[in-house]
Predict the structure.
Amino acid sequence: MTGHSHDLLIIGAGPGGYVAAIRARQLGLRVGLIERTHLGGICLNWGCIPTKAMLKGADLLRDARHGERFGVHLGDPAILPERLVARSIEVSTQLSAGVAFLLKKNGVDVIWGQADLIGPDTVDVCASLTPAPRGALGPGRYSAPHVILATGARPRSLPGIEPDGHLIWTYYEALRPSAVPDSLIIVGSGAIGIEFATIYAAMGTKITLIEREPRILPLEDAEIAGLMDKALHKAGIVRHVGVSVTKVTKGADHVTAHLPDGTLLTADRLLSAAGVVANIDGLAALGVAMSAGSIVVDDVGKTNVSGLYAIGDLTGAPMLAHKAEHDGIRCVEAIAGRLTAPHSPVPACIYASPQIASVGLTEAQALGAGRPVRVGRFSLRGNGKALVLGEPDGLIKTVFCAQTDRLLGAQLIGAEASELINGFTIALTLGATSAQLASVIFPHPTLSEALHESVLAAREGAIHA
C-alpha cells in the first residue's frame, strides 16, 4: 500500500505518539501513525497501567490485613496472583481499545508494521508479527514533510545481568510471572525497583534490594528517600546500598548475586530494574545529533535534520509518559504554526507504599544552584484525614526562594502523594509565592490541608506542627 499522502508521520503509538496524532488531526493535519506491537505503547501495556493495577491489589491486601483497626473483620485475606495479573491485563486491554477508538474517531491513519526510517521524510513499513487492528493500513512506503519519532525506551541491560526471560527478569516477566517466586533479588532502587518490591512483598515474596549508589532512590530528595527506606525496612525488605553486583551465577531454578565483599545472595529470581534506554538504534546513520544516549532537540522537538522531530523518552530524562504527551502536543502545534506554551515543570511519582511525588528543585539542588531557600516541612501525623485513613507516616516538604518567595519545588511521601503533587505543579507553573499559597483556603478534613501546613511552616506559621 504505497502512495498514501500525509502531512505528518509519527513512528510509535505510545503516550507521546498517539496523543500527538490526535492533536495533529484536530489541527487539520493528515496523519499516519505507525505502530508494530500495541496501541498505547509500553506505558499502557507493560508499564504505568498494569503495574498500578497490581499495586492496587497490594494496597487492598494491606488495608484488609488491618481491617480490625477500622472495626472490620475480614478473616485471613490473601492475594490471588493469577487474578491480580489477569486484572492488570484486562485494564490495559480496555484502555488500548479506547486508544483505538479515539484514533478512529479523529481520523488518524493507523499504519501497522515495523518502521524503517530511510530518510527524513520517508518510512518503509514491513509486516509486523502482531495482528493488525481492524482498519489499519499495512506494509509499504510512506512519506510526509514532517516525521515525529516517538519510539520510547526499553529496559536497560547491565553487563553480566542480561535478562534471559526465566531466571533474570525485566519488568516484562515481572508483570506476567508464570509463578510467584518465594524470593526475589531486585537490582536497582528507582521507581521500577521500588514499585515491584511493594507488589511482590505483598504477595509474600522475600525481597532483597541492591543499589549501587549510597542510598536508595538516589534521584529523590535525601530526606524523602530516608523515609522510604524506613518503610521498606518495616515491610521486611532487605536493602544493600553502595554496592554493585559483580557476577551472577545461575542454578536450575535459582540465581545467585555476587557482591564485592564476597557476600552471596541467592533467590528464585532476579529482577534487573536499572532503568531504561532510548530506542535510537540506526538514527546516527541519518546524521541525527545525539548526546548521552538521547536525541538532541530544541524546545518543540526539532532535531538537527530538517523535517525530523523527536519526543518523549528519545529526548532524555525525565522519561515519563506525561512528559511525552506534553512533548507531542507542543511538537505538532509548532508544526501547525501554532504558538506553544513554555514547558511546565514535570512532576514525577513513585506508586509504592507509601507513595512518593515530587516536582521542581529539591532543597539540595536549590542550594547547589546558589539559591537561598526557606524550607517547610509538615508530617502527616498532624493531618486528620491521614489518621482517619490509617496512613500517618508521611511528609510534605516545600522549598521556596528566600529572596523572591517563589516556590522552587516540593517533595511528598505518604498517602495519595501522586494525586496531591499537582497542586504544587500548578503553583510552580504559575510562579506562586508562599504568601499567595498561604492565603488559599483548603477544605477540611482532607490530605490537601497538609500541603497548606507545609507552606505555612516555610513561613514559620504552621498551626498543627
Observations:
- The chain has three domains: 8-47+84-154+277-335, 168-274, 354-458.
- The longest strand covers residues 407-414.
- Residues 168-274 form a domain with the FAD/NAD(P)-binding domain fold (CATH 3.50.50.60).
- The two ends are 67 Å apart (CA to CA).
